[in-house]
Amino acid sequence: MTTLIDDRALSQARARALAASILDAPPPARSYAVIDPRALARSERRRRHARPAPPQRQRADRHPRRRAVVGLVLLAQLGALVALLAIPAFRVRTVQVQGAQLLSAGTVERLAGATTGQSIFTVDGEALRRRLLADPWVAAASVETALPATVRITVTERLPVLRVERAGGDVLVAAGGATLAVGDATGGVIPTLPLLEDQRLALSGRPAVIDASLLGVLADTAAHFSATYGCALAAFQWRADGVLTMLAAPGWTAVLGNVDDPDRVAAIPAQLAALASLKGRLDFARPAFGYVDLQDPAAPAVGGAPGQSEPAALAPAPAAPVKAPTPV
């Protein structure tokens, strides 16, 4: 029994010693061979999953055929487009204008640049709309096309707030100062619009030029006069001597003075604010006065009786009496 145990222990000890010698032995050196890439040759062995390469002749034949088909399709599409553009049935024959009251249909067409005869497919509705909105009398616009040959234009116009009455012809003024000759308006002129009676004449005999900024101020004043002062505005009067006045419907007058330069025009809002500050002291709807002199907005002067529209200092001076010659 003891002998067997010793033999087994001896065998295990020998096995461990052999394993340790194998693990502790240095690894053998590896050698690599450098292969020239030119010596590599394609194997003739057939791959199991590789697709057979098509013959070169088939590739050469297939690509020109595909290019020819694509070219024919493009030519067909180009021909169809040219045919659509050239067909008379799709050329614009009708331009419909809706919403225009002051501007004539012809004026709206001219502003938009819409013309008959062009293909309905070449009408740029957005470009037409932008040209319409560039006009100061057009507040909003839309352009639509309808097959086969109709263009529909819808506009919303700005309303006039002032009418300038002058020797060379009346002019309508919108808020902001845009002008339109009354003769060019097709309709919609409000008969109760406040007037600017321009009595000035230029040296040439033609109506004097009205500054656009002044028109804007007067138009804005006319638009808000009733709400600000509690009565209607009858007219602005621009006398031949250059003095500008406002005539209220109840019969009193506000004197603004001479407005022949930009600085005087810029002072008008301060004059109007001074007039509004008197609303608590004066009854603008049932006046017991004749005028309010606003030439000095810091010290407005109120005076006169109903019917006296201006201070005596502004009234034309009476002619001096002619003395009879002393007899010799």
What does this structure look like?
The protein has 328 residues and is an alpha/beta fold. The protein is 31% helix and 19% strand. Strands 6-5-4-7-8-9-10-11-12 form a 9-stranded mixed β-sheet, covered by helices on one side. A hairpin with a 4-residue loop joins strand 9 (243-248) and strand 10 (253-258). Helix 5 runs parallel beside helix 7. The termini are far apart. The model is unreliable at 316-328 (pLDDT under 50).
Keywords:
disordered C terminus, 7 helices, 19% strand, alpha/beta, 328 residues, three-stranded mixed beta sheet, nine-stranded mixed beta sheet
Please work out how many helical segments DSSP would assign: 7
Number of strands: 12
Largest sheet: 9 strands, mixed
Flag low-confidence runs.
316-328
Structural class: alpha/beta
Query: What is the straight-line distance between the termini?
Result: 191 Å
Q: Estimate percent helicity.
A: 25-40%
List the secondary-structure elements in sequence, H or E. HHEHHEEEEEEHEEEHHEE
Strand order across the biggest sheet? 6-5-4-7-8-9-10-11-12
What's the alpha carbon Rg, rounded to whole Å? 48 Å
The gross shape turns out to be: elongated
* Overall average pLDDT: 79
Strand residue percentage? 15-25%
